[in-house]
Write a structure and sequence with these properties.
The chain is of the alpha+beta class and 279 residues long. The protein has helices at 17-27, 41-44, 50-62, 83-86, 96-102, 118-124, 146-150, 164-170, 187-192, 229-237, 259-273; strands at residues 34-39, 67-71, 130-131, 139-142, 174-178, 200-207, 215-222, 244-249, 252-258. It has one domain (17-90, 108-200, 226-273). The protein has a seven-stranded mixed sheet. A two-stranded antiparallel sheet has the order 6-7.
Length: 279
């Protein structure tokens, strides 16, 4: 996963779960929290048990009343015309009709996440984990609030009011950027939906369709632009009230913040700074 945070030298000895839990709590992760985590495990450095131990440590720090949430996107399930962006390679236009007719449909229980690192997969496959049903922008969650967070994710709403991000906002969730920076802060996309006259575009993906097995689903949604997220995040973090906590977990620089006020600030910031959006 790309990250704008410089990586210090990894610790000489692998971290154990107890050390990880202690460092997460020192950062400010509290029992009972609902936390959306974006992580680069490589930034943390060596950990006994790898991704499994990191997930275990997060769950222990959150306790029995807390809920761990990760972004399990599948942008590779997209229109072949978009594959240079979503997959990193192009296919000839003459192949697009065949690919639209044969691309495997999204299955919340089986389709692996794509491009978001090891932790989302570790959470997704755990017993008891629930996953939202969007074929490109799903979330997985473990904990008491998992059902509320993942239910009702509309097929034509990636990251807006009918997505888990809005449910996380309602739950006063927090965001943990574990060894990554604001460039991957998915919650800022919720703010894009609240920008007047936000541009949209047509999306396509394969979905399960009852007895027919699959169908090609087209829908219009926000045309996302995360290029300003690092600048937006730095602006938010620099506010006098210091809404972002900075700390270290292993060798990783980390950021911890409340989701709802960050989205509210992002909505206003985008209106002021995104061309054509000001009223």
């Amino acid at each position: 996963m790309t990250t704008g945070i410089a990586r210090p030298h990894a610790p000489s000895a692998p971290l154990g779960p107890d050390e990880l839990v202690a460092q997460l709590r020192a950062l400010g992760v509290r029992p009972g929290d609902t936390v959306l985590v974006h992580a680069s495990l490589g930034a943390i450095g060596p950990v006994h048990g790898g991704a499994r131990a990191v997930a275990d440590s997060l769950l222990e720090a959150l306790g029995a009343d807390g809920t761990l949430v990760v972004y399990t996107q599948t942008p590779d399930n997209s229109d072949p015309s978009r594959w240079p962006v979503t997959r990193g390679y192009a296919v000839p236009a003459k192949q697009w009709p065949r690919l639209r007719a044969t691309l495997p449909p999204f299955d919340p229980e089986r389709t692996p996440s794509y491009g978001v690192g090891l932790l989302p997969e570790e959470v997704r496959i755990r017993p008891g984990a629930l996953r939202s049903g969007h074929p490109q922008s799903s979330f997985a969650a473990l904990g008491p609030a998992a059902a509320r967070i993942t239910a009702g994710h509309a097929l034509d709403c990636h990251l807006g009011e009918a997505s888990p991000l809005a449910r996380l906002e309602e739950l006063d969730a927090r965001i943990l950027l574990l060894g990554v920076d604001f460039s991957v802060c998915t919650a800022f996309h919720l703010a894009e939906y609240r920008v007047p006259a936000q541009s949209t575009r047509l999306y396509g993906c394969a979905v399960t369709d009852g007895p027919r097995g699959r169908r090609w689903h087209r829908y219009r949604d926000v045309d996302f632009d995360a290029s300003v997220f690092p600048t937006l995040g730095d602006s938010y973090a620099s506010l006098p009230e210091r809404p972002v906590t900075r700390g270290r977990v292993g060798a990783a620089d980390c950021l911890l913040l409340d989701l709802a006020p960050a989205v509210a600030y992002a909505s206003k910031w985008l209106i002021e700074h995104r061309p054509g959006s000001r009223r």
